[in-house]
Amino acid sequence: MTAYQELMAFQRETEALSQIAGRLGWDQETMMPEGATPQRAEEHGAMANILHARRIDPRVGDWLETAVPADDVARANLRHIKRSLDRASKVPARLAAELAKTTSLAHRTWAQARADEDVPAFLPILQKVVDLRKEEAAAIAGNADPYDALLDDYEPGATGASLAAMFDALRPRLVALRSAILDKPAPQTLSGEFDEAAQLALSEKLALAFGYSVANGRIDKAVHPFSSGSGLDVRITTRTSLTDPFNCFYSTVHEVGHAAYEQGIDQAHLLTPLGRGVSMGVHESQSRIYENQLGRSRAFTSWLYGQMRDAFGDFGIADEGAFYATVNRVSDGFIRTEADEVQYNLHVLLRFDLERALMAGDLAVNDLEAAWNDRFKADFGYAVDKPSNGVLQDVHWSEGLFGYFPTYTLGNVYAGCLHQALRQAVPELDDQLAQGDTSQATGWLRTHLQQFGGLRSPADTIQHATGNAPSEAPLLDYLDAKFGDIYGL
């Protein structure tokens, strides 16, 4: 075997173990018994130790020095493995295991604190998570910005400063659009209750309509919907609300976007560094374009309206036009995952600024709730009513995912770019969506983006698919046009 072949055989085993570690996390969110938390934390720590040892194995460095890439795929694999080695070599094994163990415990602590509306119960272990992440960031960053070291794990090549500049360009038009919309009469809301079993049945129908393969996945319920896995085993979760079936439907479509990316990657890349999404921003572009530009379009909601009438009978919305406005209703709310397209990014920018301040030492963990509440009041004009609608609503910080939140807005920016290109490539798209047929849209995304996995850098992935460098302009133009039409602006 050549050095490259030996390295890839070793890497395949590492990728397989990483998938097993991810399955432990999936099980913890969906099926694990409550009393298993302490043992699961030990299991996570053990897996982290094994994976860390493999990533810094001296043989990896030796193979990298002598491996000769034969093509672009080999060059991309070597680039990813070298990047992983460089990062992992800077993090002590003790720290990697402690992070895995602590975040596993913190997740359960967060879930209970959220249920009890008890912020003080969560803060001590959050402080430990923050301290460990800061230690890790400092080890990786050296003299560079520690937050950038964390961000780079989710969006390679991005920096806090570059994202802040992009977000600063987004904010004025988002705020202006929000203000103009809230001055207009609001569309009708749903009323009454919607049977949970019927919601889940239609949710599965939506997953299939967007191309999700249940032969290589499954749909379960979780407090916080997520997608897990890659290749031949990609699982999603959703949630239900008796009074808000859109929560279930669009959580499902969103997670199917993530899952479709993983299922759409060329199987030649299975269990290699290219066999998963290249970044969280690109990943989010898939979930957001599935959920919003496709799933909340006028054309697709006309089909969904008929499906809901079949499932629930007359549910109080007179026609397809009124239903489209209801689906896209802009209204006050606390929850990021339930926010409309206009306000969603304002929720993300709040989190981005707070976590940068935490990592920089400019904000103390004990002051986080007050800082959150102050910022929310300033951005949205009303006060947080309870912690589960505020600082405790998201799972991310309990899992140590600092640097993750900005990729949500970056994903929206990427989705805007992709949607613009998709519309140009498939001019008859609305005719198909009105029949509940997403195959040309999802096929275009699979052909131009999903199949390549981690072959290119995130920015190059978007440019290759669209022909243009990423820009916030297409997203802002899309939002102005869509909501200007709905609200008569």
Counting copies of identical and different chains, the oligomeric state is: single chain
Biggest β-sheet strands, sense, barrel: 3 strands, mixed
CATH architecture group name of the largest domain: Orthogonal Bundle
CATH class of the largest domain: Mainly Alpha
Radius of gyration: 22 Å
- Helical segment tally? 20
Helices, strands, pairings?
Layout: H1 3-30, H2 37-55, H3 58-66, H4 72-89, H5 93-116, H6 119-141, H7 146-154, H8 160-182, H9 196-209, E1 219-221, E2 227-230, E3 233-238, H10 245-264, H11 280-294, H12 298-312, H13 320-327, H14 341-360, H15 368-380, H16 406-425, H17 429-433, H18 439-448, H19 458-466, H20 473-487
Parallel strand pairs: 1-3
Antiparallel strand pairs: 2-3
Helix pairs in contact: 1-2, 1-3, 2-5, 5-6, 6-7, 8-14, 8-20, 9-10, 10-11, 11-16, 12-13, 14-15, 14-16, 16-20
Give the structure's gist in a few sentences.
This protein has 489 residues and is mainly alpha-helical. The protein folds into 2 domains: 3-143, no CATH class; 160-487, Neurolysin, domain 3.
Would you mind describing this structure in some detail?
The chain is mainly α. The chain has two domains: 141 residues, no CATH class; 328 residues, Neurolysin, domain 3. Helices cover 65% and strands 3% of the residues. The chain has a three-stranded mixed β-sheet. The model has no long low-confidence stretch (mean pLDDT 95).
